[in-house]
């Protein structure tokens, strides 16, 4: 299947709502994460920009963004999730629920892939970058309907 908004996931597919791991937990990103999400990425702009999958330098914005603008971004991601056009997950510390990163699963613009996956973690959790990427890659292979995965800057 070529991923696009109309066929990103089959109509009868129930998207997973959680991924648990010893060092993190994923749940759908939403407006309720605004303050912690914004604090997480704003504390790690240079680190995220150096993470595989963020080569164009457009995100995160070096000047940051207002809480209102970040909230609009989170609402857009939550709306995409509800509409099944894309799936964004916040990465939480299982001990205290603090936001430590994010995972994005969106249709690939390339006919060679079904989905493009991107992830980042805060600079102070850099040691979780590869474990998160590996866990998400396995999760996509076992719990999601895509066979042609582009984990940008990582591996296929």
UniProtKB/TrEMBL annotation:
<keyword id="KW-0808">Transferase</keyword>
<dbReference type="GO" id="GO:0016740">
    <property type="term" value="F:transferase activity"/>
</dbReference>
<protein>
    <submittedName>
        <fullName>N-acetyltransferase</fullName>
    </submittedName>
</protein>
<dbReference type="InterPro" id="IPR016181">
    <property type="entry name" value="Acyl_CoA_acyltransferase"/>
</dbReference>
